[in-house]
Every structure is written in structure tokens, then in C-alpha cells.
């Protein structure tokens, strides 16, 4: 199985085209752009993520002797092509929307400018990295809005579609506004806060529920959260009240209780009452178990006394919209704009920029997709992130990306912030339309 940084994580047709480009001298500068054609159902916006991993890939992509031997073993490529691959490196430029940027259909989020064989070869892994984290960040952003300021923790590794997906989902959700993850490796790799409580098996391993709570408290006294729905949620809450007094004498404070099943809103209300009457007003209630943005919104609007949430499957699989209709298409070659005219999949030609304007309250009002050479008074969203195959200095870190996401969610039009249906206006500039028309006439 190839490693996650293997150059062989590509489609065979990329190698086929590379070989043909080289054979026929098609090696001049090409411009490719990655964009989303249309929003999935129930999505009013998307959030860019994955640029860091994409740049890391582009900066380090190279074929090893084993890779070259494997390609040679296919029996389809010449020794001359293998010799080219032996020294292959990405030497191009990349402009991108910074991670945490809210964007909409038809807006390029990444522009790659490089010799055609290079720009073509990197497509598959580039789309793979950007697509997945953008899917997860977009899903997570909806949950952040639905939770109305309550902390959210990623619990989704076990249901993620593979280890890399679980790791990158933790990162993407953190950018979008999650408070942390339960995945230890992601916490260590990306510097994300790690949270964890206990499982039902710990309770079941004891003959007495209160004894299980006590053992866990003595073993893990810091940030102590007890799982109370293994048997009877409300009865367990009462046991927590009784145990809290005993633990307090030992200098151990119970920070919270977690509910993982049943009607979370109703259980939380009853547990809150039990805790408050027992003098545990400071003990927080954590809820988990099959949550998505619809459940979070219902709990929030219903006033459920829940202080934070753990979200798993619906996050790391983006279960309602697991894929985006995204594309990485050639927009210019050898200094000439190019346009795909396929039915339902036509592209806007040329190098482009995305401009954004806000209303008087600072909320996003409209976007414009223009040719890159045009200049407007709005905010340009595509920025240089790589030049000559190397990252530009002082790129934003994860903290800055997270801050941008928070800012962008706060500046959404009200219907989008409420997760309501709303068509955000994205205009295609007149010069861009005129260029497309001219190319159409030229190509018949």
C-alpha cells in the first residue's frame, strides 16, 4: 500500500498525458483552476481547507526508485519518459484562498501555474487533499453555527474512512471552529486540543456504577467527566451528586457529566435539575450520540441545558453531502485562454480572481469572478501561496486560519448564518463573459 506522500497517488491518465505532452513538445506554461460547480443540497456556502497539505505535497513530490520501477513494470512507458520522471519536481506557482475562507460556486479556490506536464501530474492528489478537508470544514462550519457558541469536539476517528481521513477531519473541523478532537495523533500532529472522557465498557467492567465513577475519579482527577447513561441516566446523576461530596473532601472536583443516548434534551433538563438541587451548579453537561447540525439546531433552539457536544460520524463522513462537484480545469495554455464547452460542464476561461464586497454592517454582500488582470475596490480572495515550487514566506498558521473561519462565519448573511436557504450573489464579470464568447466564436 502506498504511503500518503507517495507520488503514485495519481490516476494512470495523468501519466498517459504527461508522456504524450513530452513526446509532442507541449511543455509551455499552463494555468489550471480548482473550483466547485454547484453546491450540494442544503449547503448555502463552503469553506476552503487543505491548502497546507496541498502545498506540502507540491513542495516534496518526487518519484522514488521503487516508484520508477513500478511504472516501468507497467510496460506502457518509454525509457525517455522514465528518465523525465526521475528528476520530476513541481516548479510552479500557486495562488489560493486562505484556509477558513467562505466561498461559493464558480469561484476558483486554487490556481496552479506551471509547465503543462507538471500542472497535469499533480491534479489527482491535489484535488484529493483539497476536496476532503473542504467537505469536512464546510460540514463543521454548519455545526458551529447550529451550536450557537457551545464548544464542539470531534469524536469521529472510528467512523472515518481511513486513518488519513480521521486525522485531516480533525484538522479541518478545528479550522471551522471546533474546540478540539478526541484523536490523539491529530492533536500531536497539528497542535489541536485533545479531549476525552470514558466509555460504557469502563462502567460495565465494575459491579457497581458508583464504584466505577470513584475509580475513574481517582485515576483521572483532572478535568473529570463521568459518563452517566450506561444504565439509568437520572439515577446515575443522583449518584454523581452523592459522590461529589466525598470526592471534594479529597480535593477532586467533578467537571462534567456526559450523556450519549436517548432524548438528549429531555435527559439534560432532568440531569441539570438533579445536579443543581445537589449543589453542583458548576458541573457541565456534555452530550454526544448521533448528532448533526439539525440535532444541534433543535437542541439549541429548544434551550437544552447542554454545555458542549461531541460529534462523530456525521462530521468525519459529512454524511448528508460527502462529496463536492469540484473540478480542476485548464484555463490557459501558452498564453492563450482555454475554455471547456461540454454540456453542463462549461468553464469560464483564463486566469481569474475573486472579489468580495460587504454591506454597511460588515456582512458579505456579493462576489465577483473577474479576469486576474482586472482591479476592483473589493477584497481579492486569491493570494500567492507558492512561487517557483516553494511556499511564500510567512504563510498563515492553523491559528490564523481558524480565526479567519470564525470571522467569516460571523459575517455571513443572516439566512446563511441561520442555515436557511439563500442564494448568495456571485457575478461573472463582463470582460470574462466577453472572453468566453470570443473563444466560442473562434472554436466554432
What would your notes on this structure say?
The chain is α/β, with parallel strands linked by helices and 444 residues long. The chain has 2 domains: 198 residues, nicotinate phosphoribosyltransferase, CATH 3.20.140; 170 residues, TIM Barrel, CATH 3.20.20.70. The chain has 17 helices and 19 strands. The strands form 4 sheets. A 7-stranded antiparallel β-sheet has the order 13-12-1-5-3-17-18. A 6-stranded parallel β-sheet has the order 7-6-11-10-9-8. Strand 10, helix 13 and strand 11 form a beta-alpha-beta unit.
Number of strands: 19
Reported CATH architecture of the largest domain: Alpha-Beta Barrel
The rounded distance between the terminal residues' Cα atoms is 47 Å
Strand content: 15-25%
* CATH class descriptor name of the largest domain: Alpha Beta
Mean pLDDT: 96
CATH homology superfamily of the largest domain:
nicotinate phosphoribosyltransferase
Sheet with the most strands, sense and barrel status: 7 strands, antiparallel
Structural class: alpha/beta
Task: Report helical residue fraction.
Answer: 40-55%
With strands numbered from the N-terminus, the spatial order across the biggest sheet is 13-12-1-5-3-17-18
**Total individual domains:** 2
Shape: elongated
